Amino acid sequence: MPRPPNQVTVQWAGARRFRSGRPGGPRAEIDGDSAAAPSPVETLLGALGACSAVDVVDILTKRRTPPERLEVAITGHRVETTPRRLTRVTMEFRVDGASVERAQAERAVDLAVNRYCSVRDSLARDIAIELVLVLNGESAPVRGEASAAPAGASPGGD
Fold first, then answer.
1. Cα separation of 124 and 131, whole Å?
2. Are 87 and 129 in contact (CB under 8 A)?
3. 136 Cβ partners below 8 Å, 6+ apart?
4. Quick one: which of 27, 102, 110, 155 could link to 19 by a disulfide (CB 3.0–4.6 Å)?
5. pTM for this one?
């Protein structure tokens, strides 16, 4: 049986601020000026990071090497003309865990972003995604689908 469609409502809260969430569920604040809450684009980047991070934690935990800490720092680069769409995104996954090996963490990040993250798969194909893994303080690029895929290539996905 297919899942029901996702539904959210966005309610104006004055000025350029809004509340967004599923009907009857929790609400997230969004601020068009990025003063009192994340902007719409920052919210999108946060959704990309959270969607991917959930899967990284799940993948590492299933391997019996759960992370002790995980944070994703995301930088989105936009064009200067309207609409100021994203052209490139850098996702830095900061993972700490004594039992987490680099190869396993790189694979988890690559799978999370390129196979399982429905937010990533919903973005325009020409948005370049760069993945970086900082594992226990040591940084290196993730060499996976996102790094190797040419612009316009499908990231895979769910």
1. 17
2. no
3. 95, 96, 97, 98, 100
4. 27
5. 0.87
**Which helix (H) or strand (E) is 21 found in, with range?**
strand 17-21
Radius of gyration of the chain (CA): 17
Q: Please give the biggest Cα pair distance in the chain.
A: 48
Residue 64, helix vs strand vs coil: coil
Residues in the chain: 158
**Beta pairing partners, 91:** 74, 131
Buried residues in 14-49 as b, exposed as e (16+ CB within 10 A): eeebbeeeeeeeeebebbeeeeebeeeeebbbebbb
Q: Is the peptide bond before 66 cis (omega within 30 degrees of 0)?
A: no
Domains located in the chain, CATH noted: 1-38 (2.20.25), 40-148 (3.30.300.20)
Phi, psi of 122 (to 5 degrees): -90, -10
**What are the residues whose beta carbons fall under 8 Å from the beta carbon of 41, sequence distance 6 or more?**
76, 78, 84, 86
pLDDT tens digits, one per residue of 80-107 = 999 999 999 999 999 999 999 999 999 9
